[in-house]
Every structure is written in structure tokens, then in C-alpha cells.
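hey so u asked for the seq, here:
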Amino acid sequence: MGLPPIVEPVDALSDSELARTARHAALAGFGPVGQRRLAAATVGVVGAGGLGSGALLSLAAAGIGTIVLIDDDEVDLSNLHRQIIHGVGDVGRPKLDSAIESIRAVSPETVVVPHAARLDDENAIALLRGCDVVLDGSDTMATRTAVADACESLGIPLVWGTVQEWNAQLTVFWSAPPDGVEPIVLRDLFDPAATGEPPTCSAVGVLGALTVQVGALMATEAIKLVTGAGSPLLGRVLLIDGLGARQREVALHPASPAHA
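ran it, C-alpha cells below
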């Protein structure tokens, strides 16, 4: 099911941006107007880690106008098998700094609004207000819940992904979708209070290539929401089995009448 675009296009792109994104303009159902919508969009990304790396590079390459980036961590050598936005020379540096350099190298016209902060219940709404869509690349249940609650309160669509070991999940939550579309929020998928913290990557491992894949898919969902192209994963959860090279999806509906 297609949805209307959530961002009005800018009037025009620079000559260099027109040339850099020319292959987007050739896409059926996308075209020059879709590219101008991307240039007008403000996308929030929580975390410049495994999921954030693939998402940020994909968003920048796509020509997103403004990226609000929230991260308070430093690059560690053990990050680099999956956090491809950073390099060996960035070890010990703030992830914000190396991520911004990589984004600017890919898309000089993309504006990055950095926040060296750990998002929580107290600051989430202030940090995410003004974003057209948010991508959650965080790795703790507390942060994920805070992001989801803030997006639900603000009515912002949230692209949500998670990767553990060889497996991944991807979906879109939106508490205020267009008329006639069921609102879906995090608690329609699971109850964070009853779930607890999942095992860490350091404990059970994670396939680096899969985090890059899922981050790029998260960026694709954001692009579709911004431009109105295709059918976003609202009401569907994509399940990826990296080891078996299988993908399937399951339907997701409101868990209670309060969300219907």
C-alpha cells in the first residue's frame, strides 16, 4: 500500500547535486520531484554504530537535505567489522566526528545537525522534534523505548531495525499515519517492560554485513516515506535469516483498541 509523501519538495537542486543524483531521477515513480523531496527532508538517526553506519551512508548518498545525528560514543577497534562509516584511524575519536566526515565526503550538500548526547526519556522529544522521519540505530531496550515513545508522541514515523547474530527484523511504526491507515507503534510488536535487554553483540556476536544490509534497508524505508514511492513496511515486519539466505514478512496490527 502506497502512502502520500510526507515532505514538500525544494524548488530546485544545484547543478552538482543534479549530476550526482541523476540515476534517481531516472527511477520510475520517483523522478526529479522525488529527489527534490529528499533534499527538503530532515531525517533523524539515533546512533552511528552498525545500523547507523549503513543508514547514514545510504541517506547521504541519496541526497537527504538534513540529518539529525545523535550519538555519544567513541570509535572502538571492535566496532569496525560492522560500523563501516568509521575507519581504523578513527579509533578513540567521537563517532559523531568521523561520521560527519564520511557523510560530507559522500554528499557535501547534506547538512548534519550533531548531538553528542545519549538519548533518554528526558531529552528524546527535544532531540527528535522537527524531524520528518526517524531511524533508530540504537542498541539498548531503554534507548529504543525512549525513541519509540518520543516518535509516538510527536506523530513522526519511526523506521526500526534490529540485528543479532545472523538474524534481523525491520519495520515501520507510525502513531499518526494518513487517514484510513492503521497506526502501529512499538508496543504492538512487543512490550518493552516484559522483554528486558537482549544479549549484547559482544556476548553472542553479530554478522557485520547484515547490519550494513539492514541499515541500508532502513534508509530505503525512510526514502519511500519521504517521497511517497513504493509501499513502506508499516503494518509488516520483515524477518531476515542471514545464515539461510531467507526473508519473509508477517503482518502487524494494533495490539489494543487504543491504537486502532
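The mean pLDDT is 94. The chain is about 35% helix and 15% strand.
lmk if thats what u needed
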